[in-house]
Amino acid sequence: MTSELDTHPSTPLPSSSIPPSHWRHLADTAWMWDQVPEYSDLFVGRAQEQDELVAALSTCRLISLTGAGGVGKTRLAAHTLRSLQATEVSAAYPGGICWVDLGALPDARRLVGTVARAVGFADHTLEIPLDALCGWLADRRVLLVLDSCDHLVAASRTLVADLLTTCRGLTILATTRQRLGSAGESVIEVGPLPHGHRDSDAFILFVERAMAVAPALGARHPQQNEDVAKICHLLDGMPLALELAAAQLMHHTLAELSASLRVQLERLTAPLPVWPHRHRSLRTAIGWSHELCDPLERLLWARLSIFRGSFDREAARSICSGGPLSVDAVSSALAGLTAKSVVQREGSGGLRLLGSIREYGWLWLGELGERETLQDRHAEHFLALARSADAGWLGPDQVTWYERIASAHVELCAALDHLMAVRPDQAVELAGRVGFFWSCCGHLREARTYLEQTLAIARSHSPARAKAQWALGVAVALQGEHRRAAALGRRCARDAALSGSVDEQLAAAYLLGITHLLSGEAHAARSVVEAALESACGPSLTSPSALRCRLVQVFALTSLGHLDAAAHGAFTLRAECTELGECWTRAYTDYQLALIALARDKPTIAGEHARAMLQGKRRLGDSFGVALGMDLLAAAAAAEGQGESAALVSGAGETFWRSVGHSQRGMPELHDVRVACWQRARAAVGNDAFERTYEQGMQANPESVLALVIEGRLPSRS
């Protein structure tokens, strides 16, 4: 008779074998450039600057590309790095290239956290954030690119000094309008493109961009060439200014463009009194492009400056419509601004205003007196997004909601900052609704910070405050403060008893349950969640909180050795999650089924469930869950006598553990699983081979390893 435990996960996973000697080379090196911006249009000139940058990278640990806004520092850095050979990058920076866009940060408060996420560090520790980041990078050879440091020069200087002192394998490349002023800084000044003749880089760039909107310019007569040369001269060879001017050729001839620019340059001193009195050509081009937009496009330009990072059309229509700008008019004006190169398309399908263009729009938004109105609408939009994501957590779109919350992170932080200043009750609601998403997927520190801040200013009890208090308890538990998490859980339980909310009671029971489990108190965990589930009825039994309580129940039964009951509960819960299309809970049921299979000496089935868990946690971006799954997969391999596979997977898993700031955590029983794994693996291949292959697993790219083990492509003996 077949038991539930003999049943494999419903989705079969392919399996092929790869020799261990090829483990470090089995994935291509494309991942090294994943974070580096990629531009579809032609990159023109800059041969000398590229050579200087490549030379500096080989000899210096801190390089700054300096120059005016719009001169092309970011593109120069991205193009140079993407032009390097894979062998060069993998040899110099085996940890890859990590790109950080600092332009979206309003100030230095989230600087360390933003850098941490870019280098793959989902900090779950209680350490000082900078100390934890330094610990993660200490033994890694990485190229860290800090793009757009202009408004954070002092904070960046301090961060760079600490990182370079502590992390000996780290190289930092910064793009900034002014040098950082750090010790050992190598500065490469990026000036305008040469623009003195027909073969100049500025001439070539302008013509290339112009032909995108006016293809007939591929065949030009002498007067047109003269007009192009004049335009390049008037704009001082500034790349962004040239691109903005070229986009106007869909409505103007070259002669008209040249004449209009000359008039503009002569009369335009500054479009607004506070606009910087430097970079005259770029200021002229931006102001002139603004004048050539129709009134609705100018209004949308100003309103779009509310976005600090990328945005989509839905957000633009929701936030920026109003008054003369109907929803349909926003779509039309957005298309016009994109065609005029004011709005840039991003590879992910998003849209963005470049820094100098956003600054100009923000100044005009102030002149229009609309900043507070737009900030309110921006916050309302992202609060609505968080409400929808929270409501959709238990359903087939769960993974999509995790992705949307992750991509909107910068704007959600901006909305929280605004609401804390003007509407504390809505701030605590927003923090509570995104807190669980953030805690599970790489933003644990920010989740805790915002939850503590909003709870401190929104004192009256409400469902929103209850949810935020619960989310804070989860964050605190994940950071290892079990006593405080338990205290928050008891407070949640008291408040839920007073409010009479069954869902709040279930949420409090889940928090207390996981705190008991993490403290090795399985009996207490089982007792508290079963009591809450018994008192629930109707729709409450199918709520996310009820699902999580049932998951804690399964964990507790496994810890107590009641394997039949645990397996039955896990399979039942897993089937319900599959029917709902839910991913987070289902992945943890596979985790439990893998543990149970190991306890019953069924390593093949354990491996299948571990891979299913990893597949789910990878989709959610949950590094903590991935680390747990890698431990179980290594244990399954060891139990099957595959010592090399176990060592490699265990080494890669250690990288995931370190990426959350801890060296292997989880429920207490997992410690015994790890010990047994290493003992079996060492017995199978010997201590020397185990240490060697474990180190190979640690040195391999963890995301590439994860993809391979999910596919079942564990290495075989060569």
Question: Can you describe this structure?
Answer:
Helix 23 packs antiparallel against helix 24. Helix 6 links the parallel strand 3 and strand 4. The strands form 2 sheets. This protein has a 5-stranded parallel sheet, with helices on both faces. By secondary structure, it is mostly helical. The chain is globular. The protein is 63% helix and 5% strand. It has helices at residues 47-59, 73-83, 86-92, 111-118, 129-137, 153-166, 201-213, 222-234, 239-247, 254-267, 280-292, 295-304, 313-320, 327-339, 355-367, 371-391, 398-407, 409-422, 424-440, 444-457, 463-478, 482-499, 502-518, 522-535, 544-559, 563-580, 584-599, 603-620, 623-639, 643-659, 669-685, 687-699, 702-710; strands at 62-66, 97-101, 142-147, 170-176, 186-189, 343-345, 351-353.
Main sheet characteristics: 5 strands, parallel
Count up the helices.
33
Secondary-structure-derived class: mainly alpha
Terminal CA distance reads 38 Å
Overall average residue pLDDT: 88
Poorly predicted runs are 10-18, 20-30, 268-278
Order the strands across the largest sheet as they lie in space.
2-3-4-1-5
* Residue fraction in strands: under 5%
Helix fraction, binned, reads 55-70%
- Total strands: 7
Name the overall outline: globular
Radius of gyration: 28 Å
